[in-house]
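Pipeline run #58 for the internal structure catalog. This entry was flagged by the ingest filter as a single-chain record with no existing model, so it goes straight to prediction. Upstream metadata was stripped on purpose; only the residue string is passed forward. Reviewer on rotation: M.T. Logging verbosity set to normal.
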Amino acid sequence: MSSIPARTLRTPRARSTDVTALIPDFPFEYGKFLDRSGRNALCTVANAHYGKQVLVVGAGVSGMVCAYELMRMGLHPVVLEASDRIGGRLYSKKLGNPGDGVICELGGMRFPVSAKALFHYFEKVGVKANMGDFPNPGTEAAISTVVDYLGEPPVYYEATGNDFPKPPEYAQIEEEFFTTFLGGEPFHFAEMEAAMTEGSIDLVKIKTLWNKIVDDNGATWDDKSFLLALQELSGWDEAQINLFGQIGFGTGGWNTDFPNSILELLRVIYGGLDADHRLAYDGASSMPERLWSMPASTLGDDVAHWPAGTSVETLTRQAMPDPFCKEVRHIAPKPGGGFTVKFIDTRTQEAFSREFDCVVYTPHVRVLDKLRYADGAASLEQMNPLLPEGTWEAVMNTHYMQSTKIFASTTTPFWEERDPVDGKRKMSVTLSDRLTRGTYLVDYGPSLGAYRGSGMFLSYTWNDDALKFQRHLPAPETLCTNLLESIYPKADISGFYAGSDTFAKMSWENEPHYLGAFKMNLPGQYEYQRRIFSQFMQGIEDNAPYGFILAGDDVSWTGGWAEGAVTTAINAVHKAAVLFGGGSQTGNPGPIDAWDTLKPIVRS
């Protein structure tokens, strides 16, 4: 669900290249690690530890991938979820009835094909078979795009054909971004992308190029924001930078990300996370839901210790018959090993306490910070038992972005109609510098699933723009409709709304178990991210692996991308295997095995 928009002309797919989203800080090939495992579990545990219970906090993507793989290697995952559903920030809300109803993605909605670990699980559970291209602005899937900027007449263009060409200044911005800004010193885009392309993957090249960007004898690009880097290297004047901030490559503005560290943007662009996105017609949350309920044997995987028909759900309910609306309030290490976990049922306020040998924590780490003060600890030492002080510092200072979506289901994809006078489509995917910011149009007609309706993300906004919808009069859908109908006076947008079950809204900063959409590091925060990501290695070098493990997309180097949720879950699985006397399978080394070679550098 990242705020970073998609590119159009210079995508890997457009150039027939197969880029893998290898994060340059730790470019472990998670997709290959998963594929090489085949039907076998990713890792092994010692026979004496079969059936040991591992608490997985949170039933989002990271929690469900972790729980599923823990089950496969013979451990007993117990998932506790503070809400009443599976999926976390993959939240596919169904509006209307099967047939003419539509799925509204209130969280992550577009998934780059370079995310090889994520697509491993999309394929495993059958979601990949029912996907289409996501209609990002400027792409063929969107067909037409309108840019509403600076109060000037809206700019209309189409991705194919010559009747309504893209404005040349938009194409120029994209070309100069990749050549002038990213092409040479210090970012070497072409070299880095080639080193992440299947058939020529070069981990040494990735680390060499990246480590110099992060720390070149004390000099670092981490101290510069995206905006400052543009001002220094792009050669653009203020008007060009502002245009780039609004329209990007004509696909979506970048100015939301201007305050963030340039390293955040580089990771995404190098690995193609900003390109070639797919829409899951079954709903993005179908993937974690199926990992929860479907037995491994049904999904074609072997399981150690457990009988056929075992699923994460059956194992969880053996230990906790009702695992939902269970909010973890405190986690404390026990003197002899393991952890005491206190949690409540948010519906009844009934309190519980359980002990576990291992805890994998997947919610936002900013929520974890609150847990330190929830049990009346008498001293700082009692408040800080889970993590080293430097990691707590990183947790406290992690920066999160706000995000708001406002969605309306429609009776038909009316925007496909063309005006008989000028030949333009009656409505388009829209970029605006006004209230709505990004408006996306989705048609589930090609879906093989039950929901084949249509709808509009009336607004998809970030940070300050997202906060504008927190207090509103009139309702936010009315504000958005009024604005869009001023851009499209012939469209009669409100006349196509689908009745009583029409609108959905989500502001992640208002959700009590999230407190924000996702992490995005500010300048100078590389070291914070390194400490949080590296936490899964705690105790490994001392041969005393520690059983509290962080996972989740904000633990990864790419907050807001489901790929990071998956890869950090795999880190946690390998760590749990080591904790219980095992490790990776012979011939298929895991992330812990690769640590000494690929680990992130420490800034000098």
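catalog note: DSSP finds 19 helices and 23 strands in the chain.
catalog note: Residues 161 and 227 are 34 Å apart (CA to CA).
status: ready for reviewer M.T.
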